Amino acid sequence: MIWTVPPLWQDSACWILGGGTSVPKQFGVPQQVIQKVYAGSLFPAVYSDYLAPIHNAHVIGINNAYQVGTWIDILFFGDSHWHLLHQRKLAMWPGLKVCCDQKFANRPIKKMEGIKFLERDKDHRQGITTNPSKVSWNANSGAAAISLAYHLGVKKIYLLGFDMTMDARAEYSHWHGSHLPPGKKRKDLPPFSKHMKGFSKIAEDARELGVEIFLIGKDSAIETLPKVFLKDVL
Predict the structure, then answer these.
(1) Strand pairing class (134-135; 156-160)
(2) Using alpha carbons only, what angle is made at residue 222 by residues 176 and 43, rounded to the nearest 5 degrees?
């Protein structure tokens, strides 16, 4: 069943918490704590207290971001393989859950586990779609969530962890470690170049729709959106 997004956050601001390794660093998480999260000896919830400055903001978390805390308002994902890995824990997470994976399109309501489904807009694949029952996929969940934020009515969006680069040691692409099942490793580099293709159109659509979008931090490889420091917007 397709969901139509209501304007719950009309004329406000929101944060989209992506997976880039810059997130814990920007909030001052000690490197030894970050390494323990990578190693699996600490859960991502350890980051929660460090992210306290945005606890009372509107926040959309992408993929593993739900593990940080229940103060995140909405969990968004677009990958059914990711969902299979997190299905059990996600079913117990109390926030609003939204996806755009086509495999959810025809599921009966009783099997949706409280997950709202939005279609991927085939007529507006890149950028920000204005159809409140769809998202522009842009080849990644973080960029697709920008359409969700727009449907919710926000006028200002802050993008956290949209790095599109590996960490300084070239070991990790996400603050929570790999998305892959335990024991598996990527044979190729993360598809950052594919993920970035939609951001020129996102910037163009944002200007036309009157939405301000900012990248938090200066390390993102995305060059089509303005970058600001975290301390300047908190």
Answers:
(1) unpaired
(2) 10
- Residues in the chain, how many? 234
Closest CA to 132 of 79, 224, 209: 209
pLDDT digits (tens, 9 = 90+) for 126-185: 999 999 999 999 999 999 999 999 999 999 999 999 987 755 554 565 655 555 444 445
Distance in angstroms (rounded) separating the CA atoms of residues 87 and 199: 30
- In the chain, the N- to C-terminal Cα span, in Å, equals 38
| C-alpha closest to that of 21 among 5, 10, 9, 35 | 35
141 within 8 A of 63, measured Cβ to Cβ: yes
R_g (Cα) of the chain, nearest Å: 17
Phi, psi of 137 (to 5 degrees): -70, -45
- Cβ-Cβ contacts under 8 Å for 232 (sequence gap 6 or more): none
DSSP-based helix, strand, coil % in the chain, nearest 5: 35, 15, 50
**Across all residues in the chain, what is the average pLDDT?**
89
Q: What is the largest CA-CA distance in the chain?
A: 46
pTM above 0.85, yes or no: yes
Domain ranges of the chain: 13-233
- Give me the pLDDT at residue 109, please: 73
**70-87 residue pLDDT tens:** 999 999 999 888 899 899
Give the containing element (helix H, strand E) for 37. helix 31-39
Burial of 166 (0-12, 13-18, 19+ CB in 10 A): middle
Question: Which amino acid, 7?
Answer: P
